[in-house]
Amino acid sequence: MSEEPSITALDDATVQRIAAGEVVERPASVVKELVENSIDADASRVSVAVERGGKDGIRVRDDGVGMSAEELDLAVRDHHTSKIGDIADLEAGVGTLGFRGEALAAVGAVSRLTMRSKPRDGEMGHELTVEGGDIGDSSPAGCPAGTVVEVDDLFYNVPARRKFLKTDATEFDHVNTVVTQYALANPGVAVSLEHDGREVFATDGNGGRSPPSSRTQSGGTGNLRSTVLSVYGREVAESMVDVEWSADDVSAETPIRSVRGLVSHPETTRAGREYLSTFVNDRYVTASTLREAVLDAYGGQLAPDRYPFAVLFVELDPATVDVNVHPRKLEVRFDDESGVKEAVSEAVKEALLAEGLIRTSAPRG
Ligand code: ADP
Ligand code: MG
């Protein structure tokens, strides 16, 4: 007696949708991917507009290099990328934010995606739509140089996911956090955010376009301060103090090369941790080690359950940090967690002490 085997192959559409779920969790994850693409495309201006927290619509417009009709069609296919060619490129180190070639395919699988693009040196623009993974034909379309990506009805074909989304306000908070991080990390790019037709913030991009490693060094923190002013407002910007710490200035051995940025006065705080922004080698990351290091520096000066504002750029040997813990979550791990924590805490403490905002250095140990 033979029975049907209980194991069967999943069909392509199912496989595609499951894979998409790994990349796209909520509107903010779509926004993250699209903004990264715009920055990778050398944009000097990135405008983000969302409707109802991004659940109904997301539009990201840039003035980057753009795509031809053929490139549009390839861009939305899974594992298609212009950013790396093979594993050797990956091992040599990637200078772009993306490289997996999965994002647009994933977004297209779980929404109605429309892209319009014109290469900078191209004569004509094109438009392409993808609906629930079905890729349409591209057609000529009038548009300025650069790219516009519109994502409507996210998860319309994955009801379980759609149901799991939070209120418009909560989803928008996540979108806002993401766009803010990219605005802070790229003071040379004019980044704007709009929600339901209302402007939330806009940076002017006057921070100057400089190579990533010198981005925060070249203009000191002046540019960063003006970006902070745009995204967090005057009260916060004026309460920020400069953090300027370099391993060259200390005798002890440290895994960190430098820590630069801004941290707020101990009384300028919020109830949430989302205003503690940390960047490792110019990439936005979430790392509890870095967060704790900042909080430690304030000693007992913070009110209970209050968190300061911080925008901190940490530079260290890329070989000593693992940024690939999870493609979506932006978490990192350091080879020397305690060394990193101590150095970052020292850098912030020094800055606060210099301004007389904390009294004494907490005992080291
Ligand atoms: P990845 O960013 O990992 O390469 P994506 O799926 O996000 O994968 O994008 C696929 C490709 O589409 C990119 O490698 C790039 O060539 C192109 N692309 C995507 N967005 C843009 C954009 N805003 N401007 C120009 N090219 C883009
Ligand atoms: Mg990408």
Task: Please state roughly what percent of the residues sit in beta strands, choosing from under 5%, 5-15%, 15-25%, 25-35%, 35-45% or over 45%.
Answer: 15-25%
Work out the number of β strands: 18
Cα distance spanning the termini: 71 Å
Please give the count of helices: 12
Weakly predicted, low-confidence segments = 208-220
Q: What gyration radius follows from the Cα positions, in whole Å?
A: 22 Å
**Main beta sheet, described?**
9 strands, mixed
Write down the overall mean pLDDT: 89
Bound ligands, named by name, code or SMILES: adenosine-5'-diphosphate, magnesium ion
- Order of helix and strand elements from N to C terminus: HHEEHHHEEEEEHHEEHHHEEEEEHEEEEH
> What oligomerization state is this entry in?
single chain
Secondary-structure-based class equals alpha+beta
How would you describe the shape? globular
| Helical coverage, percent range | 25-40%
Describe this structure in words.
This protein has 365 residues and is α+β, with helices and mostly antiparallel strands. The chain has helices spanning 12-23, 27-40, 69-75, 87-92, 103-109, 159-164, 168-185, 215-218, 222-232, 234-239, 288-297, 337-354, and strands at residues 45-51, 57-62, 112-118, 125-131, 134-135, 139-141, 146-152, 190-195, 198-202, 240-246, 256-264, 269-270, 276-280, 283-285, 307-308, 310-316, 321-322, 333-334. The strands form four sheets. Strands 1, 2, 3, 4, 5, 6, 7, 8 and 9 form a nine-stranded mixed β-sheet that branches. Strands 10-11-16-13-14 form a five-stranded mixed β-sheet, with helices on both faces. Helix 1 (12-23) packs across helix 5 (103-109). The longest helix is centred in the middle third of the chain and has 18 residues, at 168-185. The chain is globular and about 70 Å long. Mean pLDDT is 89; it is low at 208-220. Magnesium ion binds at residues 33, 36-37, 98, 103. Residues 211-224 have a biased composition (Polar residues). Residues 228-353 form the DNA mismatch repair protein S5 domain.
